[in-house]
Amino acid sequence: MAQKKKKTKGDRPARARVKPSEKTLQASWWTQRSEAARHGICLGMLLVVAVGFFAPVLFSGEAIVATDTVGWRAGAETMLQYRAETGEEALWATNVFGGMPGYVISLPRKIPQIDQVADVLRRFLWPVSHFLFLLLGAYGLVFFLTRDALSSVLAACAYGLTTYLPIILVAGHNTKFIALCYAPWVVLAFVYALRKPGLLAGLLFAVALAVNLRANHVQITYYLAFLLGIWWIVEGVGALRKGEARAFAVTTGWLALGTVLAVLMVAQPYLSTYEYNRYSIRGAATGGGEGGLDWSYAMGWSQGLGEMITLLIADAYGGSAAYWGGKIFTGGPHYVGGIVLLLAGLAMGCYRRRAVRALAISAVLMMCFALGENFEALNRLMYDAFPLFDAFRVPETWLSIVAFVLAVLAGIGLYAVVRPEPSVEAEQQKTKAVYIAVGVALGLVLVFYLGKGFFFDFEREGEFEQALQSIAGQMQRPADDPQVISTTDQLYQEQIVQPRADLFRGDALRTFLFLLLAAGALVAFRMGKLPGWAMQAALVVLVALDLGGVGRRYYNADQLKPTSDPAAQIPLSDFDQFILQQRDAAGGSGHFRVLSLERPDWTSNARPSYHYESLGGYSGAKLRLFQDYVEHLFLDPSTGQPSEHALDLLSTRYIVARAPLPGTREVYRSASTGLVVLENPDALPRAFLVGETEVIATPEETWARLQSPAFDPHRTAILAEPIDFAVTPVDSTSTATVALQRFGPREIAWSVGTDAPRLLVASEIYYPAGWHAYVDGEPAPIYRADYLLRAVPIPAGTQDVVMRFEPSSYRLSLWLSGLSTLLVYGGVLALLGLARYRRRQPGGVQDEAA
């Protein structure tokens, strides 16, 4: 057999190899540092970023206490009191919306997991306690993907300083912030499982996913699931093309195991929350059954197509104070900056890997979801067909994950720029791509800066017409008068349009300058004039200054309060003191409720709930029965005022208002606020006996009957279905007494006396998943009466009647979470210990490598 001739260097194609150089291999001061030292420097940079941005809180002794946080604190007051007094969880909130499950208000995680490290730090380092986990997670993710530390620092800064995070902190959306802080760890565990599948990877994914879910903002986890799902599909397609379907199936199995274990680990609190969801506005339709958020409600705060430019130019739509977009209002833009977008584009153009494709597809798709009703063709399809898509509102929230994706892409893009290529030709092509990307980015921003009026009119829909009507009234002329139109147009342009245009130009110029500096660093590096590490460090500084500067517009010393205790922000007015005196005179809580109309949005005002039992409150997931009460029973259709029957049903004894209401009498007038306290003398007792029932099957007929002047709830209860219990009417000769013995979130007890079988109607919100009744210690059924109240059949005689909140889902959730957490964390520790033991054995490293 003829021997093959061995190829020599001269036989190879004339393709020059890249010589080691400072530009490509970064053989410089940076690479002379040990890997541990490089990580230490990078983590030190991230610590400086965290401390620097949150300095207003860390070094002032003050805190940011948001309105939403104050609202939560007011609504949670009775639950917190019960916990402090008994050491047990209340589970039911008595002081909001006539009573509701407290799972979505205050339900601490009883089973310890690793996230409680951050919870301990939170007591004195909030929000840095969780922000550091965000930075470390993003750093670890990008380092795992690139093995480049400085690129990972840039990604961490780009995500951590995206403007949305300080905005939601100021708004008090703390659970959302925490979920976003843990998001990088979920993706890191997912990618680790893709690259190194096995039992350990599956268990680590369970740990990360459970921690994210325990942040208690499932909307963010749901959005993350989309990202991971798309990534999984891209990886699956790649595996099929390479004939690696079996290995990919095994990897999927480990991820599926991790997902199941994570769900079990968060059974507490999610099992109770899932149970509650079936009865809330997010899961139940009117009258029961499965439902979801109404389309218009779910699509509130859809991102406008033009507003996507705020990813590049922060105040293109006026920021928050001068906002002129299509949403009702906004807390601020989802700004990521020109440098991040430039580097993300370079990742997609210069680093064609599955991870980049998955991230790019995810970013585009999520931007489309963020458009909400402004891209109805897609989002209506998802709303109607995709599981849980109709359970969440505020579509622009998708952009929080888009910002994360773009930050990761930016880190990969920076790595792609400094990553050495195998040939001179490849390096030249990359240099060309960098120059083109830089030129396009600078040119695009310059076009926006110079042609602002061509792209935007800076006018909000209907705004000019409102101004026209106002000025016409001031001038006492018709709105179509030419002089009125001319005056309005001049003032509108000078006072409204021009300031918005100036904001746009100012931020467009700002973005251009940051891009210009970044472009200079990139070009200097590609020309060999600047070491790679210095260029990367320069871009990190620019990104931190860019994003941090915009974030500081929202998170600054102006937002600080003297104390971090939200309760200190809840005022006690003189009319509150009057109502509290009436409550004490009546025997304490459990005797009446209060409706506060001090604000028009009474269903979003939790302040009164801090002091006494209120019809209002603060929750984005109210019970469907109560929401139906608000929408179909609360207002009298003939007067537009609160319905007397509706107030009577929920035992509303006092109303805080600005003017008298029909059927009430003024009992107190506040000198300091001008508000009056009105007494409703016809309010039903919190529990009473009736001897007549009507069966009405449909909600609409029930609402009509409850609003009828002929209906007397003192005598008759409306039931949704017949019951096997005969009642006797109450008349002047009857004996029927009900006395409250105990009242609390977990138990209500009455002493009931009746000379004939009757129905005890309790003015407590009906909730079948946990409330149980006992008559003289024997179980008794609880029926739904008057659409949203509870009723218990009572035989003749004197009985002790007790209602206890005993949700079996809560007890089961504790066992499931405890056992699964023990299994997962024990498994991780055992596997890590086993791996360490094997490495310490003679030949262990070699055997493992083999």
> Strands across the major sheet, in which order?
12-13-19-15-16
The percentage of residues in β strands lies in: 5-15%
Query: Which structural class best describes the helix and strand composition?
Result: alpha+beta
Average pLDDT, rounded to a whole number, is 90
Radius of gyration: 32 Å
Offer a few descriptive terms.
850 residues, alpha+beta, disordered N terminus, disordered C terminus, 5-stranded antiparallel beta sheet, single chain
Provide structural commentary.
With 850 residues, the chain is an alpha+beta fold. Among the domains are: 22-63 and 126-371 and 383-448 and 458-559, no CATH class; 688-806, no CATH class. 52% of the residues lie in helices and 10% in strands. The chain is built from 30 helices and 19 strands. It has a five-stranded antiparallel beta sheet with strand order 12-13-19-15-16, with no helix packed on it. Strands 5-6-8-7 form a four-stranded mixed beta sheet. The protein has a four-stranded antiparallel beta sheet with strand order 9-14-18-17, with no helix packed on it. The longest helix is centred in the middle third of the chain and has 45 residues, at 482-526. Mean pLDDT is 90; it is low at 1-26 and 845-850.
